[in-house]
Amino acid sequence: MTTRIYILSIIVISLVVYNIIEWWPNQVTSEGKNVLPSIPSMLDFQLAGQDFNARKKLHVKRDLFQPVIKKTRKKIIKPVEKAVVLPTPTTPSASEIARKIAEQELSQFKLVGILFQGEIKKAFVTYGDDNLTVKINDVIQDKYIVDDITVTNIILRNIKIDIKKKIELIN
Q: What are the φ/ψ torsions at residue 32 (nearest 5 degrees)?
């Protein structure tokens, strides 16, 4: 414990001596010579042509807690507003809506099989949960009519809206 105190006291004494040497004013004799050797400062390294007094004034006026900020005018640029032309939304007509609904209903038909008995052509069709056996010119649910039956497909037509749909045989 005492060793620590001795070490700390030596460090404190050496710092005090260093500060005294550093900050003690230079003593000048009557002959104009310094008694203590001077420690070079930043002023010793100033360039030729610099005014020492002007430099001193700058340092005196400078406040570290309120740095000088150059005030510059900022140009405020306002964006030019262009007129935005939005496309007018086109509402589909009632006939277009009915046509899309009819196409969706026709796409729900599935062709499961085809049967040929002589000249009679029959097709096995599913519509939702219903299994139907149809011939040419048969009407399905008072909406659709079978136009043609071939080896690989059938053609259904909506009666109200003249839309035809070719339904391929499911593999």
A: 90, 15
Paired strand residues for 153: 168
- Does residue 10 fall inside a structural domain? no
The answer to pTM > 0.90 is no
Q: Which amino acid is at 146?
A: V
Mean confidence (pLDDT) of the chain:
78
Q: List pLDDT tens digits, range 54-111.
A: 555 544 455 556 666 666 677 777 777 777 777 888 888 888 888 898 888 888 899 9
In a domain, 5, yes or no: no
H helical segments located in 90-131:
94-106
Q: How many whole angstroms separate alpha carbon 64 and alpha carbon 156?
A: 91
List the CATH number of the domain containing 119: 2.30.30.830
Whole domain around residue 121: which residue ranges?
108-168
Nearest to 27 by CA among 41, 18, 40, 37: 37
| DSSP 8-state secondary structure symbol assigned to residue 43 | G
